[in-house]
Task: inverse folding
């Protein structure tokens, strides 16, 4: 499908959703569970279209209706909380996302049992939340436990097992345990290509992750080839403004920074940062990642006047969105200290 036709179809779908959303409460005043089911469906479709405010409105309303009429322990209530997790996550609201994930998992495990598939989904969500919040040890322990249960209960090629096999090495990558990450990413890619196909969005994420491993190992030529191949497919399949594509663009910019290819790095950071600001907002963690990366690039070029305000902005945003002790927040603080030392401003570095 051409980009123009795809865009036209998306506009048509949005128009249909907006019409369907109108006056739902009045239409189903005496059928609250029907209203909740419709809102749950609408919310998830809006989410996949990137309309997160509309998605949150419907999913939160569905959760309240389910909880009021069925209770906190009903599967439908718990599933609606799972949908809200992804809405929060995709808006960069990681702290809220973690809170609702942990709450849903605790209830699901107590009511449904640890090996129920809905509980396993909830466990996967919590492990992913820990990963994004920089709680790597907690994430790794949960993923390992989940992987053992998934292999035994579901099988290796089931959706959830594939997700876990792909996410566990992501924990290793962020801890710079590159050899472990490479081995498991290759296994995940082999399985995902066979089951989901070469162009599935999560297969492409794993390809990008593997490029990150190569970068960490200093295998720059392999990393560049992997990033470029992944980006070509992502731009064609899910579009340049999709968050997964932006992850790859950021990775490529960091690679070029490591190689000293500063002009290319600057081009990619600026392009990615502009898209992130427009699509995700100034305070989204992905926007802040690119802001920090661009500041580091300026530092390497001894352009301290440009780097300083970007790092201060990154610190403020990361403290707000991720907390004071998140690895990314600490990274920006370390970068600012290094900047002041290199700039000869030792008093500011001491502060």
Result:
């Amino acid at each position: 499908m051409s980009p123009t036709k795809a865009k036209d179809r998306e506009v048509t779908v949005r128009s249909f959703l907006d019409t369907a959303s109108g006056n739902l409460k009045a239409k189903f005043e005496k059928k609250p569970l029907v209203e909740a089911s419709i809102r749950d469906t609408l919310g998830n479709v809006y989410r996949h279209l990137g309309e997160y405010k509309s998605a949150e409105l419907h999913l939160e309303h569905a959760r309240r209706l389910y909880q009021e009429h069925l209770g906190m322990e009903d599967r439908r209530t718990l599933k609606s909380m799972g949908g809200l997790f992804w809405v929060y996550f995709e808006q960069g609201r990681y702290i809220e996302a973690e809170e609702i994930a942990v709450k849903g998992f605790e209830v699901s495990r107590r009511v449904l049992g640890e090996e129920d598939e809905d509980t396993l989904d909830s466990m996967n969500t919590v492990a992913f939340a820990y990963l994004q919040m920089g709680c790597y040890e907690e994430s790794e322990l949960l993923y390992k436990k989940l992987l053992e249960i998934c292999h035994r209960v579901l099988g290796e090629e089931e959706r959830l097992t594939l997700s876990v096999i792909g996410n566990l090495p992501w924990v290793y990558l962020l801890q710079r345990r590159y050899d472990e990450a490479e081995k498991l990413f290759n296994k995940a890619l082999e399985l995902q290509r066979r089951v989901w196909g070469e162009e599935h969005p999560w297969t492409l994420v794993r390809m990008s992750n593997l490029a990150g491993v190569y970068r960490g190992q200093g295998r720059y030529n392999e990393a560049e080839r992997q990033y470029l191949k992944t980006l070509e497919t992502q731009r064609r399949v899910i579009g340049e403004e999709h968050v997964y594509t932006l992850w790859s663009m950021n990775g490529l910019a960091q690679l070029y920074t490591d190689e000293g290819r500063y002009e290319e790095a600057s081009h990619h950071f600026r392009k990615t940062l502009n898209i992130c600001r427009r699509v995700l907002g100034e305070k989204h963690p992905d926007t802040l990642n690119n802001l920090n990366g661009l500041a580091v690039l300026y530092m390497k070029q001894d352009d301290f006047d440009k780097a300083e305000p970007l790092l201060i902005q990154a610190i403020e945003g990361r403290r707000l969105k991720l907390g004071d002790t998140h690895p990314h927040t600490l990274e920006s603080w370390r970068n600012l200290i290094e900047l002041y030392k290199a700039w000869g401003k030792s008093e500011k570095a001491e502060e």
Q: What stands out?
A: Confidence is low (pLDDT under 50) at residues 1-9. The chain is about 80% helix and 0% strand. The longest helix spans residues 3-21. The radius of gyration is 22 Å.
